[in-house]
Amino acid sequence: MQDISFSNIFQFLKNPGDSLSSKIIHGSIWTFATQIFTRALTFTRTIILARLLSPNDFGLMGIAFLALSTLQTFSETGVNAALIYKKENTKEELDVAWTIRFLRSLLIGSILFLSAPYIASFFKNEQATSIIRFIALGQVFYGLSNIAIIRFQKEIEFHKYFLFSICSTIPEVIIAIWAAIVFKSVWALVIGYLAGAIANCIFSYVFCPFKPRFSLSGIHVRGLLGYGKWIWASTIIIFLITQGDDIFVGKFLGAAALGLYQLAYRISNLPATEISHVIARIAFPAYVKVRDDVEKLGRLYWNFFENVFLFSLYTVVLILLFSEHFVLTFLGSKWKPMISSLKVLAIYGGIRSIGATNGTFYNAIGKPHLDTLIAFFQLLLLVILLSLLGIKYNILGVSLSTTISIFCVHFFAFFYIIKFVGFNYHSFKRILLNVLFLLVFLFLFYFLNLFKFFGFFENLILYFMSVFSIYFLSKKISKL
User: Fold this and answer.
1) Which of 184-193, 297-306, 376-385 has the weakest average pLDDT?
2) Are 338 and 395 in contact (CB under 8 A)?
3) How many domains are there within the chain?
4) How many CB atoms are closer than 10 A to CB 96?
5) Is 297 inside a domain boundary?
6) What is the pLDDT of residues 59-91, one digit of tens each?
7) Which residue segment(s) compose the domain that 197 sits in?
8) Burial letters for 184-222: b for 16+ Cβ neighbours within 10 Å, e otherwise?
9) What is the DSSP letter of 53?
10) What is the DSSP letter of 124?
């Protein structure tokens, strides 16, 4: 029996069948596996590099990525989302999409290379000039990569994307660590980025046999960019929200503060947002397939929402409890100033992860303008809060500004979706039970730690055991 059950599992992982529910489960398993392996690799790289390099090195790379992100955002075409939204893609559409993306990457790389001295001058750091120019070169390689990789997401075939992601990430991690040991400077980060860009380009053709050709057929260009215009507008506003705080820190607080803030942001947002973006990647094509049936769409939404909310809740609490010990043990005392920001940004990451599923829903039902509108109000609130808290409270004030702004807008945005799909009592009941049980656990946790019964690793094990117990207990009670 055991051999048969394992055989069935492997068969399911290879071929889930034709039903949407099976494809969603299959896609979820492989997408989670992809994120766990790739993020574990990159997180390990980050910890090692944080030990070998300084906050200023990370800040210099942060300046280069801010410049790159700015150009990427303002030239966003929404082509990928348009390809997924359309139920069928012809070869001609893929050719046009690849051409648009390549020309965009070439344009971004050229502008970035030529404007590097001016960008460095804006941030008052001339060292960033040569770094920005090498980052521009990497952008061209990403533009040359195979557009047909999008089919893995569109058809919910994430087992193929798993292999592609692992093979693309490993060279970047290994070469970055090697370069950090050899050079002990910001150039380790640059070399790692270039290695990742080249690997991504090469393996995109290894895993997908499609060979794109240069084409700018007018009818396909209009079709792809017509849907993408709202994605473009939303992406610009979301960029100003997610990168505006970085620009503020880099401009007014300096490269070292930017290095501290960005690493705090990356660590605090890693668990919740990475998992939620995995779910959003699966949810988008799944929503598209059932968007004409409101009842099925509602059940699917609440299933995704419940799981994202609970995972975000558990990871936020985990970071709040153990962030200080983690930073001092694994990163070192030079990163201590970021601890308070890390805790605040953990809450931001949890809210952002839930909001990501909402944005996916709007896009799938053909209303991407709603996501744009929500992001616009968040941006306005962020600007007001940064002016009040940013300079006065340093990176902690910036962290508070981002967290308060995202909470306010997504609290109200959530009610629109409830109105559209209806309220799900059973999902809400399970969420409420999890929150109540977690509060009881935290009370007991703090009580035990007053008497120093457990060390760090014992507390960590206790937390994970409690989370699993809470989750399954709440499921049992909610069925009564």
Assistant:
1) 297-306
2) yes
3) 1
4) 26
5) yes
6) 889 889 888 888 887 766 666 666 666 656 666
7) 15-423
8) eebbbbbbbbbbbbbbbbbbbbebbeeebeebeeeebbe
9) S
10) T
- Residues ≥6 apart with Cβ < 8 Å to 257: 59, 249, 250, 394, 395
Of 5-19, 179-193, 250-264, 292-306, the poorest mean pLDDT is in 5-19
What pLDDT does 394 receive? 86
Q: What residue type is 369 in one-letter code?
A: H
Rounded-to-integer distance, Cα 360 and Cα 357, Å: 5
Burial of 301 (0-12, 13-18, 19+ CB in 10 A): buried
Query: Does 56 have pLDDT greater than 80?
Result: yes
> pLDDT at position 6, please?
38
When mean pLDDT is compared across 22-31, 106-115, 223-232, 352-361, the lowest value belongs to 223-232
d(CA 118, CA 208): 39
Distances from the Cα of 51 to the Cα of 39, 46, 67, 265, 271, angstroms: 18, 9, 26, 17, 21
Residue 71 lies in a domain: yes
**Alpha helix positions (H), 291-366:** 294-326, 339-364
* Domain membership flag for residue 52: yes
User: Closest Cα to residue 128, out of 143, 140, 139, 115?
Assistant: 115
Domain membership flag for residue 445: no
Q: CA–CA separation, 397 vs 385, rounded Å?
A: 9
Other CB atoms within a 10 A radius of the CB of residue 411 amount to: 11
What is the token pair recorded at 35?
Answer: 């994120």
Q: Indicate whether 12 pLDDT > 50.
A: no
Tokens representing 187? Answer: 């150039």
